[in-house]
Amino acid sequence: MNKRQARYFAIGSTLLATLVFLGLTLDSHRQFPKLTNAQNITPAVTLGKDAWHKHNCINCHTIFGEGAYYAPDLTKIAQQRGAPYLRAFLKDPSKFYDEQRHRRLMPQQNLSDEEIDGLIAFLDWVSKVDNQGWPPRPIVVTGLGAGAANATIPSTTTATDPSTSAEGAATAMTGKDPVALGERVFMAAAPACTACHSLTAGADMAGPSLAGIATRTEKTLASPDYKGTATDLTSFIRESITQPSAHLVPGAMYSANGASFMPDTYGKDLTPEQIDQLAAYLATFK
């Protein structure tokens, strides 16, 4: 290739690259309204966006991967936590964290009720933007979550597990072992249980750690303070899934105004079989 050919090749390549870039840019702008749910940008969303910038939330948090990394990414926080939790948290973050234990504490922003409602609306809008699956992992508040390397996850091949027998092994292999199926439900429910519950003792997140739930349940059912209708471990777990406000732990920051922060939609979103499987799985945490 001589100098003239090299020059023409460079010019042609530049023009082609420019055309491709412009085409992709125009196509992106064409899709922005649909991808960002622009039609759902209400005055409350705008107010929340302004509060987000006014209080410099991005100095600690990220949305869509943009911002600081000192505090959790909040892209999907509205789906993972829900409005009741966010409202109570924004009112007084100190009730959810202990600076000595967690080595960090979100400052009290003294937000007005209008700003809190706006921020919740803004974060709800953000959570519904089609961001191609980002962030890839559920939010972790305390640094420990279900699936962490040191999580205490019960084995489905223990001595008391039916899969240790020939019949049980065959059942597990055909995908009918309720404990194994319950673990899948725990990881894949929408929103995923792992977004709020840890399987590591002492690692409380938006909801309490589920390590030792079987032992705690025995004490709860025997307590005169228990307000639910469950009579045993399995029915208590079912009740906690389908009616999370049936029994609220006194003094615990997992509820506000007499209602649990846990969504009350799992009874509709999960089939009775899935709930039974989830109960069977969680019952193994002694």
Automatic annotation (TrEMBL):
<keyword id="KW-0408">Iron</keyword>
<protein>
    <submittedName>
        <fullName>Nitric oxide reductase subunit C</fullName>
    </submittedName>
</protein>
<feature type="domain" description="Cytochrome c">
    <location>
        <begin position="43"/>
        <end position="127"/>
    </location>
</feature>
<keyword id="KW-0813">Transport</keyword>
<feature type="domain" description="Cytochrome c">
    <location>
        <begin position="177"/>
        <end position="286"/>
    </location>
</feature>
<keyword id="KW-0249">Electron transport</keyword>
<dbReference type="Pfam" id="PF00034">
    <property type="entry name" value="Cytochrom_C"/>
</dbReference>
<dbReference type="InterPro" id="IPR036909">
    <property type="entry name" value="Cyt_c-like_dom_sf"/>
</dbReference>
<keyword id="KW-0479">Metal-binding</keyword>
<dbReference type="InterPro" id="IPR051811">
    <property type="entry name" value="Cytochrome_c550/c551-like"/>
</dbReference>
<keyword id="KW-0349">Heme</keyword>
<dbReference type="InterPro" id="IPR009056">
    <property type="entry name" value="Cyt_c-like_dom"/>
</dbReference>
